[in-house]
Structure formats: structure tokens, C-alpha cells
Design brief:
- The protein is of the alpha/beta class.
- Helices cover about 25% and strands about 15% of the residues.
- The strands form five sheets. It has an eight-stranded parallel sheet with strand order 11-10-7-3-2-1-13-12. Strands 14-15-16-20-18 form a five-stranded antiparallel sheet, covered by helices on one side. The protein has a three-stranded antiparallel sheet with strand order 4-6-5, with no helix packed on it.
- Helix 3 (about 80-90) links the parallel strand 2 and strand 3.
- The chain is globular and about 80 Å long.
- It binds 1-deoxynojirimycin (NOJ).
């Protein structure tokens, strides 16, 4: 089972710059993580995914890589990373890195060389194109800020493609040499003991070979299908990408234990999501964004869960996550900061068959922080109808001191902290009724089953607003209403309740927003 350690495991996404500063510069770093590993062990996570750690000019905070084989000096050294992998391993936790294969930084030596002349031997590492016949960009693709996805280059008289910022030129995956480079990069980190990668923009590597215009969105297109009114069908989501993951999977499987490929699969159609699992020969895990954008109601969540499980191949392990550094924090989006709802969300996701990915701070119900424009650090988010992304990247709230325990006293952190007095780890550790204490109990329940095959899932009948399901030996009953509800039968042997000790509570009733995990064995 160790070969599928990630199955039913709990992973913890850690935004390195914001988790723990060890050297008093206001930025979190790798040594800071090492100093807090005991906390993660206590919490009960099985692995951590570090947001980008490679050298970068930080136009997009590490998602613009200038050296795939190094560590960003602001975050530490490669020795620090080795030490982190070692120290995490001693505590039973694996370390995943973030891999950005869709684009590099424009400061990457590949791009500098590619842009030097049309004859450069590295010219085809990137997507260069002539102007459209009447002049202007080669097609109608737009980047994530809504601007044309093409940047004119005066030196060589062509445009280059950037799906994100102009400082993030897209690589050209039609070139075998790009595949070769990434095979090398994968092996380099796997050899060092990295347990796997979260793959950035996993659906995006290949672009249409003819660079055809994207068609306009349909009325019914949801937030994931369209980009500024255009369907991203030619600028990403191309079928050729699957061959890359088959190749990477065989590399991952050549290690013991096999390394994990977790895709940032930003797709709306769950059948498309399922395709990233291949025949158990592509990604082992693929993020489910339709769930992130679902409403916080029994029917809305149950419906996405049912469709996901129906779409995934039998061997496919679903991934449940609701917060990240792009989409914001679920305690705000779903719960409006209400801790009863935060516990309920953790409970329903944590008891489902599949892997759970928590974003740092989910475990204490950390909410989005309104970062004033003059302190904003994110250049890419906040365009069109998308809210800015700094709101979910603020420092971890460890205690109620002025710096929230994130950095040294008197040091200004790179982003302002949220309300550290309202929510912090130190206070919640002492409080058995806190979100943190609840989350720890939930993870401990999960841990007993980590690595085991996925159990079946079945939604059970329940009154409106109640989501009741069976998953293996567990029965989950979750009241998504602000009213107490009566159940047709007692919940059974309670293993965990969001309301704490159910003691004398009527076994056939749930409090408003209460969720209960019970055992099928009555
Ligand atoms: C997805 C990452 O999660 C996001 O933060 C980044 O801006 C884009 N990909 C571009 O790399």
C-alpha cells in the first residue's frame, strides 16, 4: 500500500513565503518550515506541497521560474531543502514541489537565448509567431489579465506567446527537446527524495499547432471554461498533453516508492478531468475545480461529488480541496467566516473517498484578508471579474502577537496579517471546541485508512438541506441548514461531530450546520 501512500492521504499546501519566517526578513522560508514541522506532525498530515521554491524574479511569486534545478535564495538553499525533506521524512511526511512546465520566466537562460535571434538554437523552445496578415497579434488569444496573449519582440520581429504575464513566455511542447529538459528536471528532484510534483497549469502545455482563434463562450459556460469571453479550446486543453503525463508517470513509477503527480487541472468538464488519470497511467491525482466553485449547499456539493465519482475511472483517486492561493479560502467563500460551517465543510470533504488537500490556515478557519491596494503584491490576479489573490496569501496566524508569530517582532511581513487575535494556532490548540482541534480529530480518523483502496460512495435519502452519505464503513450526516433537523433514524455510533461531544443530544436530531460521522456498525 505504500506504493499508493497518497490514496486517502491528507496533503497540506504550504505557501512558503507566508508560513514561517526564520531569518527576520518578513518572508517565509524553508528553515521556517523545518522549525514548524512538529506542528504538522501533531496535526496529522501525510505530505506537504510547497508553493514554488525555484529561483524566480517573482513577477508571479515563483510561477516564473528562472532555474528549474535550484532553490530561490530568499527561501533558502538546496541544502535547506534536503534538510526539510529529511526532517519531514523522520516525521512520516513527504514533500512535494511545485513544477511549472507551461512557461518559464523571461529571465530564464532558455528564453534569453531563444529571444536573441531567429537563428538561435533555442528559438523553438518557445512559441514564436509572425503578425496576423493585417498586422497585430497572430490570433485572438488573451492572457489571464485579459490582454492579448502575444508580446511583440522588436529584436527578432515576431510575437511570443504568454498565457500569463509577458514575463512568463509559454514553452513550446511540440519540441521534443522541451520534453527532454523536463524529464531531466523530474529525475533531478526525484533523485533528491522529492515525493512528487503539483503540476502547474496541467491542462495547458500544448497549444493548437495551427494557432487557431478561440471561439466565443456559450451562455452556459461556467467560470472555468472561458477566459474573458473566449473558450480556451485552442490555447490549452489539447489532447497531446496526455502523452506527456504518460511519459512522466513511467518516470514516477520507476522510483520506490513511486513519485506522485498531482495536476492543477483547471477544467470545467468532469470527463475532461477524468481523462487526466488516463488508464491509471497518467496523473495519480487531479484537482477538482468544479467543486471549488460549487455552492455551499447539500445538493450542490453532493451533485458535484456524484458526477466526479461517476466520471473518474475505477482506479482514479479523487482529490477534494476547497482553498488555494488562487481561488481564495473556503472559510470565506463558503462559510462567511462562520466556524460551524467551516467544520461542516472539513467534515464532508474529509470523510469522502479520496485525498484531501488542505491549504495552510484551513485548519484554523483562516479567512481571506482585505489587502489594501497600496500593499498588494500580486500582478496577475484581480483582473476582470476575478478578485485579487493576495487575500489568501497572508501570513500564517500562529499566535496573537503583533506579527502573528510569523516573523520576528517589529518586522513588517511581505503581506499584512489577518485578524490574529480572532484566529490563531496557539489559542485553538488549547481549545477542544476549536476548528483546529476538530480538524486534528478528523485527520486522525482519516489516517487510520490512508493508503487503503477507495471505499464506495452512496448518497442516502435525507430531508431537504441534509447531505447524508455512506463511504465504506462511515456514514456522514450533514445539516446544511440554519435549523435543527430531525432524522428518520438515530445517527448510530458517533465517531466525530462538528458540535463536539454529543453526550445527551437526541441521537435522531442535528443542530443547525451540524455534521456527524458515524460508524455503519450500529
Ligand atoms: C497557476 C498558479 O496556481 C498561479 O498562482 C499562477 O499564477 C499560474 N498558474 C501561472 O503559473
Amino acid at each position: 500500500m505504500d506504493r499508493r501512500w497518497w490514496q486517502r492521504a491528507t496533503l497540506y499546501q504550504l505557501y512558503v513565503r507566508s508560513w514561517q519566517d526564520s531569518d527576520g526578513d518578513g518572508y517565509g522560508d524553508l528553515r521556517g518550515i523545518i522549525s514548524r514541522l512538529d506542528y504538522l506532525e501533531w496535526l496529522g498530515v501525510d505530505g506537504i506541497w510547497l508553493s514554488p521554491t525555484m529561483p524566480s524574479p517573482d513577477q508571479d511569486w515563483g510561477y516564473d521560474v528562472s532555474d528549474y534545478l535550484g532553490v530561490h535564495p530568499e527561501l533558502g538553499t538546496i541544502d535547506d531543502l534536503d534538510a526539510l525533506i529529511e526532517a519531514a521524512g523522520q516525521r512520516g511526511m513527504r514533500v512535494l514541489l511545485d513544477l511549472v512546465p507551461n512557461h518559464t520566466s523571461s529571465a530564464h537562460p532558455w528564453f534569453v537565448e531563444s529571444a536573441a535571434s531567429r537563428q538561435s538554437p533555442l528559438r523553438d523552445y518557445y512559441v514564436w509567431a509572425d503578425p496576423a496578415p493585417g498586422g497585430g497579434p497572430p490570433n485572438n488569444w488573451v492572457d489571464f489579465t485579459g490582454q492579448p496573449a502575444w508580446q511583440w519582440d522588436n529584436t527578432t520581429g515576431q510575437f511570443y506567446l504568454h498565457n500569463f504575464l509577458p514575463a512568463q513566455p509559454d514553452l513550446n511542447w511540440w519540441q521534443p527537446v522541451v520534453h527532454e529538459e523536463f524529464r531531466r528536471i523530474l529525475r533531478f528532484w526525484f533523485d533528491r527524495g522529492v515525493a512528487g510534483f503539483r503540476i502547474d497549469v496541467a491542462q495547458g502545455l500544448y497549444k493548437d499547432a495551427l494557432l487557431r482563434d478561440n471561439p466565443p463562450c456559450d451562455e452556459e459556460d461556467g467560470p472555468l471554461a472561458g477566459r474573458f469571453g473566449l473558450q480556451a479550446v485552442y490555447s490549452e486543453n489539447r489532447p497531446e498533453v496526455h502523452a506527456v503525463y504518460r511519459e512522466w508517470r513511467s518516470i514516477a513509477e520507476s522510483y520506490d516508492p513511486p513519485r506522485l503527480l498531482l495536476g492543477e487541472t483547471w477544467v470545467e468538464d468532469l470527463r475532461q478531468l477524468a481523462a487526466f488519470y488516463g488508464q491509471d497511467d497518467e496523473l495519480q491525482l487531479a484537482f477538482n475545480f468544479p467543486l471549488v466553485f460549487a455552492g455551499f449547499s447539500a445538493d450542490s456539493l453532493a451533485s458535484i461529488v456524484a458526477s466526479t465519482l461517476a466520471a473518474l475511472p475505477a482506479s482514479g483517486c479523487p482529490v477534494w480541496t476547497a482553498s488555494n492561493h488562487d481561488v481564495g479560502r473556503f472559510p470565506s467563500r463558503w462559510c462567511g467566516g462562520d466556524e460551524a460551517k467551516v467544520k461542516l465543510a472539513l467534515l464532508v470533504l474529509g470523510a469522502l473517498p479520496g485525498s484531501l488537500v488542505l491549504y495552510y490556515g484551513d485548519e484554523i478557519g483562516m479567512t481571506d484578508v482585505a489587502v489594501p491596494p497600496e500593499l498588494a503584491r500580486d500582478a496577475l490576479g484581480g483582473h476582470g471579474r476575478r478578485p485579487g489573490r493576495d487575500r489568501a496569501r497572508t501570513p500564517m496566524q500562529w499566535d496573537e502577537s503583533a506579527s502573528g508569530g510569523f516573523t520576528a517582532p517589529g518586522i513588517r511581513s511581505w503581506l499584512p496579517s489577518g485578524d490574529v487575535a480572532a484566529r490563531n494556532v496557539a489559542a485553538q490548540r488549547e481549545d477542544p471546541g476549536s476548528v483546529l482541534s476538530f480538524c486534528r480529530e478528523l485527520l486522525s480518523l482519516r489516517r487510520e485508512r490512508a493508503g487503503q483502496p477507495q471505499p464506495g460512495y452512496e448518497r442516502l435519502p435525507a430531508s431537504p438541506g441534509v447531505w447524508r452519505y455512506e463511504a465504506g464503513e462511515l456514514i456522514v450526516t450533514a445539516n446544511f441548514t440554519g435549523r435543527p433537523v430531525r432524522l428518520p433514524a438515530p445517527v448510530g455510533k458517533v465517531l466525530l461531530s462538528t458540535a463536539g461531544d454529543r453526550g445527551q443530544v437526541d441521537p435522531a436530531a442535528l443542530a443547525p450546520w451540524e455534521g456527524v460521522i458515524s460508524s455503519r456498525v450500529r
